[in-house]
Amino acid sequence: MSLTSTVTLHNGVKIPWVGLGVYKVEKGTEAVDTVKAALDLGYRSIDTAAFYENEKEVGQAIRESGLNREDIFVTSKVWNTEQGYEETLKAFDDSLQKLGLGYIDLYLIHWPVPGKFKDTWRALEEVYEQGKVRAIGVSNFQIHHLEELMKEAKIKPMVDQVEFHPQLYQKDLLDFCKENEIQLEAWGPLGRSRYLDDPVLNEIAEKYGKTAAQVILRWEYQHEIVIIPKSTKPHRQKENADIFDFALTAEDMKKIDALNQDKRTGKHPDEFPY
After folding, report:
1. Residues 217/190, Cβ–Cβ less than 8 Å
2. C-alpha to C-alpha distances, 19 to 41, 87, 180, 206, 227, nearest whole angstrom
């Protein structure tokens, strides 16, 4: 297993298990350099969004990398203020133009805006059927959002990207997604590094000669979750990628599962100020 290892979505498209998130990576030189460094290390999946305001730089870095476009998996998302059917079609075209890569691999609804996300989904189905995007999905959707969407959707979401880490072990959502062939993907997979000093994580890390961050990412991977840790520092990007040479035992997994506190670093989707 390596950074090029993939999981197959329910429509047959393959997505790498590990990618680079670029939330809060400054547009301009920092974003270009961050993405280039990750691609040099072997990352083949980059996760951006209209809201991040760095799609242009992501596209530039990929073009300048010299890698084949088809070897890189690019995700973007439609923001809340651009949701609705017509608005989303326009937002998608804007993202496509900023990226300048010909097509997008995965396009997500960023948050489940009440009263709008079903119309937004119709737009995603349209761009998918037109072949402008290889896979479509959602982000920050809870079970009830997914159920509501799937009642009317022609195409089932391929991905649900949510906040997920040991202090927010959303087991019910994970189980629901597995039952419905929706790939769960974790944003903030390290809990924004807020509890890397946890004694349980560090005891397990010491056993394998790894860091607490690597143990968390391996735990998510063994739960069959796609992960997109963010770092602008090449040595951290390398550390985050170095999780394929060890495996946690069932006992280790249970210990980490037990760290759950339903504690979020971001907003709860039902309480987001839409």
Report:
1. yes
2. 11, 28, 23, 25, 6
Q: What is the mean pLDDT of each successive set of 10 residues along the chain, which is 274 residues long?
A: 93 98 93 97 97 97 97 98 98 98 98 98 98 98 98 98 98 98 98 95 98 98 97 95 97 98 96 90
Q: Are 116 and 86 in contact (CB under 8 A)?
A: no
Give the C-alpha separation, 153 to 139, whole Å.
16
Q: Compute the distance between CA of residue 213 and CA of residue 158 in angstroms, rounded to an integer.
A: 27
Among 72, 27, 73, 33, smallest CA distance to 51 is for 27
- Cα angle value 195/20/168 (rounded, 5°): 35
Cα 35 to its chain centre, rounded Å, is 15
- Pairing state between β 14-16 and 6-8: antiparallel
Provide the domain count of the chain.
1
* 269 is a domain residue: no
Say whether 221 is catalytic. Answer: no
**Domain extent at residue 227:** 6-257
Q: What stretches of the chain adopt beta strand conformation (E)?
A: 6-8, 14-16, 20-21, 45-47, 73-78, 104-109, 133-139, 159-163, 183-187, 226-227
Instruction: Give this prediction's pTM.
Output: 0.97
pLDDT for the residue numbered 2: 85
235 is in an annotated binding site: no
- The enclosing domain of 116 has a CATH number of 3.20.20.100
Residues 6+ apart with CB under 8 A from 130: none
Catalytic residue among 43, 52, 107, 195: 52
